[in-house]
Amino acid sequence: MYNENEIWNQLKQKDRSAFELLFRTHYEPLVGFVFKYLGNQPEAEEVVQDVYFQLWKKLDEVEIETSIKSYLYQAARNKSLNIIKHRIVQRKYEEHVQFHDSPFDSTNQIEVDELQERIQKAIDTLPEKCREVFLLSRFEEKKYKEIAEELGISIKTVENQMGKALKVLRGELADYLPMMVLFAMELIILESQIGVNPFEIV
Amino acid sequence: MNHDSKNSLDYDALAKQFAGSATDHELSSIERWRKSAHENEVIYQQLYLVWLDTGVINDSTKLSSEINLDQAWGNLNQRIDESEKIIPITKQRSSWRKYAAIAAVIILLIGGYFTTMIAIGDQEMMQLQASTEIKSIDLNDGTK
After folding, report:
1. DSSP string of chain A, one letter each residue
2. Which of A149, B31, B52, B137 sits at 20 to 30 Å (Cα–Cα) from A133?
3. Share of chain B above pLDDT 70, in %
4. Per-residue pLDDT tens over the stretch B78-127
5. Does A20 touch chain B (CB under 8 A)?
6. Is residue A189 less than 8 Å (CB to CB) from chain B?
7. What does the pLDDT average to over A148-167?
8. Mean pLDDT value across residues A79-108
């Protein structure tokens, strides 16, 4: 490891060996982190190298708020989300619509450490069965059929539990996305006007 | 996706899609829902973002191959070197362009000069022809 202030001062003086130390310390875990978003290793490595490259190029402009590590993770997450946004928008809309106010754009300021902590708390709030199903799907990448077999429940129940998990998580994490707050408020207004819960499945 | 825009939100169907367990029919239904209103697309992206972010707290990462740290550093190092070489190349190119621009202006001026000279020459020729014609008219008058 390195001393945060010391390495930052060296970096500011364009010290390539300090930069190499920073690279070697965080490269692998960062690739693992980005891989969770993108699911593609060469692409994940490219993103992480881009993050480092841009840090080097913009050393004069970059301001580190908490730590260089936090900065790297935040930049890596932003880059990954940007790639995903392009993937989903381009593929679905081709050249019809350029999607500007995407929730993928409004998350830049969140610290990854804080985000992870909040996600963990949000997952902890899930009812037991729901959490079990969700974790099997999300972390072990099991298909619904496999989860149903493993837990001895119907596929329909897996579907319901997963839907429930997504709904609860959205509610728990709502305030980390400005757009989400906006929509939650709109939906509450809608609910009070028409007397239905907009999240209710018909 | 058996709901229309604002009134309901089929979390089950969306989770199924994110988890990669949706059928083609369900996928195209979600597609239609997303395209039917801008807000639907926003909601879709919010939920997908929540889905993606919940994936990162998992400690284990199943990378497809081992990371070659030396090679990765080598690539980055080379990229930085190349990017820092760009500055003199740009300067060279810009000074080359400057000379090219000056040469082009000179060529244009020379070209313009000759074009003008040729035009003036043509005019003189025409005047000469015109005056010859007048002379012959005078001669005709003289024979009367």
Report:
1. ---HHHHHHHHHTT-HHHHHHHHHHHHHHHHHHHHHHH--HHHHHHHHHHHHHHHHHTTTT---SS-HHHHHHHHHHHHHHHHHHHHHHHHHHTTS----S-GGGTTTT--HHHHHHHHHHHHHTS-HHHHHHHHHHHTS---HHHHHHHHT--HHHHHHHHHHHHHHHHHHHGGGSHHHHHHHHHHHHHHHHHSS-TTS--
2. B31
3. 69
4. 999 999 885 555 555 566 677 777 788 888 888 777 777 777 666 665 55
5. yes
6. no
7. 96
8. 69
Residue of B4, B39, B42, B46 for testing the chain A interface, max A β-carbons within 10 Å = B46
- Whether residue A195 is predicted with pLDDT greater than 50 in this model: the reply is no
* ipTM field: 0.78
Ranked by mean pLDDT, the top range of A50-54, A84-88, A138-142, A169-173 is A50-54
Length of chain B: 144
Structure token pair of residue B72: 């990765």
Determine the straight-line distance between the first and last CA of chain A, rounded to whole angstroms.
Answer: 54
A183/B42 touch (CB, cutoff 8 Å), yes or no: yes
Q: How much is the pTM? A: 0.70
Q: Which residues contact A25 (CB under 8 A, 6 or more apart)?
A: A1, A2
Is pLDDT above 70 for A109?
no
Q: Which of A40-44, A172-176, A196-200 has the lowest mean pLDDT?
A: A196-200
Q: Does A178 touch chain B (CB under 8 A)?
A: no
A138 touches chain B (CB under 8 A): yes
First to last CA, chain B: 108
Q: Computed from CA positions of residues B30, B36, B42, B43, in that sequence, does the dihedral angle turn out positive or negative?
A: negative
Query: CA torsion angle for B32, B35, B40, B43 (degrees, to 10)?
Result: 90
The DSSP code for B68 is -
Q: Supply A82's token pair.
A: 């940007």
What is the C-alpha to C-alpha distance for residues B48 and A63, in angstroms, rounded to an integer? 30
Please give the Cα distance from A5 to A29 (Å, whole number).
21
